[in-house]
Amino acid sequence: MTRFIGIIGYPLKHTLSPAFQQAALDHYQLDIRYWPWETEPAQLHTAVSKLRWPENIGANVTVPHKETVMTLVDEVDSVAAAIGAVNTIVKRGGQLVGYNTDARGFIRSLKEDAFFDPKGRRVVVLGSGGAARAVCFGLLAEGVASIVIVNRTLRRANELADALSRRRSGVSTGAEVLVVGWGSEEFADCLKHCHLVVNCTILGMAHGPGEGESPLATELIPRNALVYDLVYNPAETPLLQAARRVGARRLGGLTMLVYQGAASFELWIGRPAPVDVMMLAARKALAKLS
Ligand SMILES: NC(=O)c1ccc[n+]([C@@H]2O[C@H](COP(=O)([O-])OP(=O)(O)OC[C@H]3O[C@@H](n4cnc5c(N)ncnc54)[C@H](OP(=O)(O)O)[C@@H]3O)[C@@H](O)[C@H]2O)c1
Asked: Domain 3-100+255-274, what fold?
């Protein structure tokens, strides 16, 4: 019997996951198909129920369902619960279990692709959505010295900082978490002294409302820091172009995407993810989109 995995999100026109997950499944010659399961919010309940059918193994979950889906699965693992979002569902003994592999993917890419050890470093995080939450939780777990959060909507930045503080009291990392206003002098000062700046906003993403925009003006980009853009389409975003102009080190979001997918693959299949095969397929699929 052919079995199925898919990605649940809306819209899904530009998703790369089917290309690189199918390449990984084919690498092991598994009779499993990975489909884009485009799902409007009103259909989410039905889409999750279908995962209980015998031929289905699990799913990835993406925007805008990562938070809502937590209420539809039978169990949420502790990392996903701390982050407050599920991006992977695995069926175990008939039960749907929710995981989050974004933080793992982000930290792996920092260490393996940028050779950046977050321990003791000062970080500026732009954005306060689901991706920012995963990034901040990952960074805290790695023992960063401080995280400065900046977001268009200040309330959401404060909510994220509060959530991080609650989590920190459990793990007592001693990290400082600050919220500063976008465009404030304090913001410019924090940028000057940081080791890492991470764009977790949608600014710069192709086909989105912030296409062609950079979250930072060129003169604000710290030349001695690593500039990491979670946006992976285009491969060189406006932020990364600006970072190149000032001579800063740069990393785009494609490797994180593949590593979070590799962690999901291992949860579903229980075999090591063929990361090189997945990376190549992701790069080819991205080139086709551009
Ligand atoms: N590489 C990867 O593996 C990976 C994984 C996850 C996500 N991502 C990328 O990360 C980005 C964020 O994803 P998400 O899931 O966190 O989305 P989300 O939950 O919708 O959050 C979007 C964020 O972007 C901000 N934003 C939206 N429009 C803006 C504007 N015009 N000006 C300034 N800020 C704006 C939002 O600010 P407000 O709070 O003010 O609305 C919020 O902080 C996306 O581009 C996504 O593709 C990449």
From this structure: Rossmann fold (3.40.50)
**pLDDT tens, residue by residue, 233-256:** 999 999 999 999 999 999 999 999
Q: Whose CA is nearest to atom 24 of ligand 1?
A: 201
Query: Which protein residue has the closest C-alpha to ligand 1 atom 41?
Result: 153
Regarding pTM above 0.85, the answer is yes
Q: How far apart are CA 119 and CA 104, in angstroms?
A: 15
Q: Which residue has the tokens 């949420």?
A: 76
Q: What is the pLDDT of residues 220-234, one digit of tens each?
A: 999 999 999 999 999
Question: What sign results for the dihedral spanned by CA atoms 116, 120, 126, 128?
Answer: positive
The catalytic residues are 66
The listed CATH number (3.40.630.10, 3.40.50.10140, 3.40.50.720, 3.40.30.10) that belongs to domain 103-253: 3.40.50.720
